[in-house]
Amino acid sequence: MFLNRLGVVARLTALATAASAAAHAEGCPKSSDEMATDRPDVTNSSIVVPVGSLQNENGVNLTGRDGGRTIDGSNSRWRLGVAPCLEVLIDLPSYVGPLKGLGASGFSDVAPAVKWQVSPVPGKIDLSITAGVALPTGATAIAGRGTQPYIQLPWSWELHDGWGLSGMFTEFFRPAELTGRHISEATFVIEKKLTEKLSVFTEYVGDYPNGAVPTQLINSGGMAHLTPTQQVDLHVAFGLNRNSPTYVVGVGYSFRVDGLFR
Q1: Helix, strand, or coil (residue 238)
Q2: Which residues contact 10 (CB under 8 A, 6 or more apart)?
Q3: Residues in CB range of 134: below 8 A, 6 or more apart
Q4: What is the Cα–Cα distance from 169 to 69, expressed in whole angstroms?
Q5: Shortest CA distance to 41 belongs to which of 177, 160, 192?
Q6: DSSP 211
Q7: Helix/strand/coil for 196
């Protein structure tokens, strides 16, 4: 009798788990949804890529600091939806080089990651968890030394009349570095959807290295959807202290291809 009851409980638990998973999947992004990108703001989207969709995000930045100028690109990120509310992504190496003045040049690291959308509840706060690692493939002067894991928590809250709030908390770990082995980053964004295709935002970005002076930026810009699966963007950032860049200007283009798993 006990075993029979135990079997019934086990089956009910399995059914409840399956129902919960199905309900969760129902709220996950679909290919009919408009694309949500991790750019041009520093704050990544809390919305993952739909299952079977491949998204490519690219951009180029011009940065001014201490009278010099550098350029970096193409800042390519590939994102693939592999399961409901789950994606894998990879940041490809970007080239960094001086245009004016002295400065290091070379490529950044390759950085694969996994992103899970925890709470796909329309109209409420959406939250995702991203865990990744920068592999030591780039130039040390650009990317630093050794393997550098990180974990991110991007969130978003859709308000009324096209307004929205979002932000992200990131912990970067750099165990091979002599100083600054741990960096905390916090961001906060106010966004306004002006039309069905055009949105603007203003963002605060703060990087706080362990035992070092932080860098702080105000970043503003906009995104325009050419189609539901194509986006162009522009952003301009200004430093808030002497340790920050004087300015950063960037442009980008992103697209998504759906139905890869059919």
Answers
A1: strand
A2: none
A3: 91, 108, 109, 110, 111, 143, 147, 148, 149, 150
A4: 28
A5: 192
A6: T
A7: coil
Tell me how far apart the alpha carbons of residues 45 and 54 are, in angstroms, rounded to a whole number: 15
pLDDT tens for 190-247 read 999 999 999 999 999 999 999 889 999 999 999 999 999 999 999 999 999 999 999 9
Helix (H/G/I), strand (E/B), else coil: 8: helix
Tell me what the pLDDT averaged over the chain comes to: 90
C-alpha to C-alpha distance for 183 and 216, rounded to whole angstroms:
13
pLDDT digits (tens, 9 = 90+) for 60-103: 999 999 999 999 999 999 999 999 999 999 999 999 999 999 88
Q: Who's near 190: CB < 8 A, 6+ residues apart?
A: 163, 164, 165, 201, 202, 203
DSSP state of 21: H
CA angle centred on 41, ends 157 and 220, rounded to 5° = 100
CA distance 144 to 162: 40
Angle at 161 between CA 159 and CA 164, to 5 degrees: 35
